[in-house]
# Entry
Amino acid sequence: MAIVDSILMELEQEAKTTQRVLDRVPADKLTWKPHPRSSSLGQLAMHIAAGQGRLAEIISKDTHEIGNISQPQPASRKEILEAFSQSTADALGTLKKLNDSQLMAMWTLTRDGKVLLSAPRIGIIRSILMNHFYHHRGQLSVYLRLLDVPVPSIYGPSADENPFA
# Structure
């Protein structure tokens, strides 16, 4: 078994959970924000939906020069769900191409030519491509709760849904 196989299995499993959360995003609340400095519901959902595919492509290279990061406001819930489907497929496809040697190789992030971060690619995949999006999925579940939208089970029962019942 290659190192990437366990990553792919986890991404596929977590994608099912993320899909359940994104499926609950109310189409009429995409511009809602819990705080003026927060991302809107739609921006956060789109970040989760589209991010892994983009990040997998970035991480597949040896270095990346970071530019300005923006959070687009999606026009519809359908746009979010389609972006998630495509992004998940893109991330899995890109990561499948990485061998063990590439996973253990150093990856570097720069801004204006200055190194911001350099670490083994496998660590970047774990912390940024995976954990980062699990974190944002948790934020999205709080947004849903604040909007009184039933929160699906993520890692166990929620107050709204018990997968063990």
Q: What stands out?
A: Helices lie at 3-23, 41-60, 77-96, 100-104, 121-146.
